[in-house]
Amino acid sequence: MSAKLSYPRFLLAVFSIFSASAYATESPKSGEFNGEGELGYNSTASNSNSSSLNAKLGINYLQADWEHSLNLSAVSAQNEGVNTRERYLLDGQAPRTFSEVYYGFGNLRYDKDLFSGYHYQMKLTVAIGGTRKPRHLNGLNLGLWLLI
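The chain above was modelled as a monomer; its predicted structure follows.
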């Protein structure tokens, strides 16, 4: 039996590469941690009472040719004392530069949404690739992704 990578899974893998980097903060200097966090709470009281809580934490660590990033987030919402939203997300990525042309990375994403059709979703992506600069393009990235 051969494993096929369907078009939606391929797009999901490519999108996850870019979405993971969207959380990243400014890169730290070698051997230093860098990060940011957010915390928000909203409560309304009128004909109906509702509240929501959002929390995010992003941490980066640079070590020689590796840059590790870890992003955590949690969302919770209630309306009239009944939970209407609860989601937890963990996203970790470790890209490595092998040379000016070649790179690789690994990404692990865990998503638990109590109001979705899945218990949880977990994705592991491993990739290697290279960058070339043809004359007629600003840059071209070629890569091989493995989505597990």
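The beta strands are 33-45, 49-63, 66-79, 82-97, 102-113, 121-132, 140-147.
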